Amino acid sequence: MTILAPNSPLSAIEALRGDKTKRPISDLSSASGLRAQLEDGIYSIMGKASPLTPLVVRSSSLRQNHNTIDIQQASLSLFRGILVTQVLRLLSVGVEVTDPFSEALSAWRCEKSGSDLVRSFNQLDKEQVARLEADVNAHASTLKRSLGVVSATWMPRSCVRASQRFAGGHVLLFDVVDLMVGSTTSKFASVALFDVTTSPLDAGAERTMRFHALMQTLKTSVVPLRTSIFSSATGELWTSDVDYEILSRSVDEVLSTLNDMWKYV
Amino acid sequence: MSTLLHRRNTVQNINELIASAPATSSQLTNDHRASLSARFRAVNATSNRRLDAWMVEQAGKPYDPFHWTPQIARRVLGASALRRITTRSDLSLSQAVRDELADHLLRSTAGYTQSGSLSYWLSGLSHASLGLVCAEAVSWATTTYEVLQGIERPWQLAQSDAYYDVSAARTSLRGRRDIVIKHDEQRVVLRLRAGSPGKSSGPGLRCDLTIDALASPTGAAASRFIGVWPDAGVCLSVDGTMADLRAGARDLVRTAVVQQRGQMLKAA
């Protein structure tokens, strides 16, 4: 169910946490059904075939066709996305970010020193770096303004990874959620997922939101309370309460993506 | 027979694994230690070697020289932060991690650090990089805290990883352990890992079980050793039987052999 708040919440985090008294009891039973649904669906697509390399589905696979991006073609928008995510990580632990571009770059270099992407970044010319800097600063400013204060008591975790194997390891589902708050061990559902994109929100963004919720459910066997996506390009926040319908829809989307991928194997 | 069990990482499953741990476990004697030492001595070492479960899982593949990264530092900082909040409940995890970072930086400023240490590395980082290290440590500590919250029996955080120096063999073994649950005379050990388990994760877990038993003064093995992969939502466990301990020791010796062969080939 998508919530249309009567009054606009003051911050994205506030919107995510919502009204504490209206939270449902944690759903611990849906995960096994979804897993079975996925296994059955994958079997109906692949049968007993065993591909030489596993088919990998990520949230990006649901947003575009299945062609992977060549590292050499890593564009400025890719770097922009990475750096804005770094800004979010810093904000999530209460770091005061005054110069978003340089601070995000410093953090990213510390994390990924020696990676292909960092090498690719180092090859950018001065003009491209200047354009990227202006872009990142603008996006970070929108993010800072809209995010609000992430309280330490909400147990914020950034870059939360999830991986699931299906069909005996022939199908891999990978996901990274930019920010997650709440606990999976509480009686009431409290986990909220927050993703940041530097593109305007579209139908693909909705699929991403659902995929995050599905992966979180499969990983912890607990259905999260809410899933959301924020565009630092437009300042728009989409948020949705998670229920079985949303998760089941995401299963269908994953299977449809796999079906497309399987045609090319 | 292998006692390897595979379960989903849920609160219920972890508690079941802890509750159903065998009431008895094997014990390594001085003869076992002497025998292991003789086997390691038979594998020539040109320099001191350190083996752990990761190397066993990687089949002794040569690895890059160690250097600190936020992903490596998070476990040390996260575990120390959790120890802080067990004694001071008013602290949040973020605050505990920040206090831990501040302690390291203070140590460095006071000149009590050596190059290569975590404190030394942290002292050379920019403000933003420290923020990222903090974010990683908070995420790790929170994940561990979530596992701890679900455990019904009294637990304690492991004071350190298990280290065992194999006498006269220039070999030291390092086993990872994060949480210890003591029940009567027995103990169950939990180890958390990022990523997802592969085909060699079972042997890796057995190695940690063996090293943990070797590091124990009495040689008593944990009745059950549970490996938790929160990212994959999976946990594996092995029991402290003599067969599992032997398998763990065998894999460690094999890894030393493979490493030695690799070094010989490189030298040739």
Secondary structure: elements and pairs:
The complex is a heterodimer of chains A (265) and B (268).
Chain A: H1 12-17, H2 30-46, E1 55-57, H3 59-63, H4 76-92, H5 100-112, H6 116-122, H7 126-147, E2 157-166, E3 171-181, E4 192-197, H8 203-220, E5 226-231, E6 237-241, H9 244-263
Parallel strand pairs in A: 1-3, 4-5
Antiparallel strand pairs in A: 2-3, 3-4, 5-6
Chain B: E1 5-8, H1 11-19, H2 30-41, E2 49-52, H3 53-57, H4 70-87, H5 93-109, H6 118-123, H7 127-150, E3 155-157, E4 162-166, E5 171-175, E6 179-183, E7 186-192, H8 201-215, E8 224-229, E9 234-239, H9 242-267
Parallel strand pairs in B: 2-5, 7-8
Antiparallel strand pairs in B: 1-9, 3-6, 4-5, 6-7, 8-9
Helix pairs in contact in B: 4-5, 4-7, 5-7, 8-9
Q: What would your notes on this structure say?
A:
The complex is a heterodimer of chains A (265) and B (268). Chain A has helices at 12-17, 30-46, 59-63, 76-92, 100-112, 116-122, 126-147, 203-220, 244-263; strands at 55-57, 157-166, 171-181, 192-197, 226-231, 237-241. Chain A has 265 residues and is an alpha/beta fold. The mean pLDDT of chain A is 90. Chain B contains 9 helices and 9 strands. Chain B has a 6-stranded mixed β-sheet with strand order 1-9-8-7-6-3. In chain B, α4 (70-87) crosses α5, α4 (70-87) packs across α7 (127-150) and α8 packs across α9. The radius of gyration of chain B is 19 Å and the shape is globular. The mean pLDDT of chain B is 93. Chains A and B meet through α4, α5, β2 and α8 of A and α5 and α7 of B.
